[in-house]
Amino acid sequence: MEDISFGKLKFKRNGILASGILGTTGWSMAKVASAGAGGITCKSISLNFRHGHPTPVVQAYEHGILNAVGLSSSGIDHSNHELTIVRKNSDAIIIASVFGGTPKEFAQTVEKLDHTIIDAIELNISCPNVADEFGLPFSATPESAVSVIKIVRPVTQKPLIIKLSPNFPKLGLIAKACEEAGANGITAINTVGPGMLIDIDTFQPKLSNKRGGVSGPAILPIAIRCVHDIYKNVTIPIIGMGGITHTEDAIQMIAAGATLYGVGSGILYNGLEIFTEINQGITDFLAKKGLTYQELIGISHREG
Ligand SMILES: Cc1cc2nc3c(=O)[nH]c(=O)nc-3n(C[C@H](O)[C@H](O)[C@H](O)COP(=O)(O)O)c2cc1C
User: Fold this and answer.
1) Measured between alpha carbons, how far is 201 from 270 in angstroms, rounded to an integer?
2) Is 86 in the pocket of ligand 1 (CB under 6 A)?
């Protein structure tokens, strides 16, 4: 497959490792790249060290995964060191995922990343805005999403990708506001929810945090609908993720409008081979249909 353009970035392969899965150490990220991922997103980084929630933080069920890791982070300086290891040991595009409690905290972290070896920055704005009266995430409204981008945009030359949550209405308008504020790409979606699972021996919620975000196969239709909505509203490229475990899922995501597909939970279901399997599956599919990769992107929006 030829290189795929995502704005100014050129990806050698079209699968992306989603943030939060095997994205903490340089060696685990390099391993995912050598297994076939064209881009690697690290676990979201904060300015300073954060513990996250106590265990249990992840619970698998038949159709997906519930998690409330609580945005644990080793802090920007340690994460930078790990990202250097990925650069030296892989040809993948490196996307640094960043989160903060305030727009200023986002900007401070991004500023520190601007002169490093990473290729792009993903703003995980699904985290709560600590200044919001109800602790709503920044991705909840166009205004709060833009409040982060406006402060971050001037402090970096790197491409800025905004990661959106499926849990709020008017996703298309939120994405459009992000584009107008200077975003170079959108990643969709983060986890769905919150959800809860209960242990029927103790009758207590299975996660220490009680509630968590849902990922994996259960959320595929929600993710595809979100990417479809976003594609209709923006001209910047999209990384589509949420529930992808097979080639057919990734093809649907690209047909909905994603330029690249992302996998997180799918690795837990199908192992690291998932990237090579899907890439080969897409190549075979395109040959069978007589389509180019570019023609597949957003094809569901064109009249038959
Ligand atoms: C255990 C776990 C940890 C995650 N941590 C992050 C994170 O740090 N930052 C982020 O933006 N998304 C995080 N996510 C969300 C994923 O990146 C992805 O958006 C979501 O899981 C949907 O994709 P999937 O169904 O392929 O997993 C996490 C997901 C899981 C399952």
Assistant:
1) 30
2) no
